Amino acid sequence: MINFEVLVTRYSWLIPILYELVNYLNKSGNLIFSKNELGNVMKVPKRLVRTCIWILQKLKIVKHDVKEGYYELDEEFYKIFSKRVNELNVCKFKNSYIYKFQDLYYLITIKRKRITCRKVSQELILRIIELLKNYENGLTISKIRELINEKADRVCTALKILNLFNIVKKIPENEHVLYKLSVTDPSLINRLIR
Q1: CA 152: distance to chain centroid?
Q2: pTM: predicted TM-score of the whole model, two decimal places
């Protein structure tokens, strides 16, 4: 069976699926589930569910066909994941999941045909917050990127995480979108992102 740290870092896109599956199995009272049940819980197409189950089987987290069409979550993995998932502090926002492991934030978005995973350092998020504190009128992504000398995709990911936590808000202005802090209380910011 796979190590928890390896699962969280290398297979980070599986965390929302396992998180929802474990919550579902906690309610049902057993470790057996079908593809349809997993698809309904995650609200994703069967093709994506099949791929997830196939990888979970390769990682020896799920056993195939306990009875026809059903799968079983490994009991040892279930116990470990149930205990350690609280360390990740998984937050769910519609189709997006955010969790923090060590000093990285992971943003996983589940779409109709794919699961995307982006990660960004806590240090970058704190730098963006400090920068936005100095600009009350807000900044565009390109200006933020220029001021902190960081790649655009990382800045966008950090801003999306901050937006989902309601720390930063988007303000449409002419043909640009400005980002500005919506929370000014430092203790609230620290509680949300640490």
Answers
A1: 19
A2: 0.88
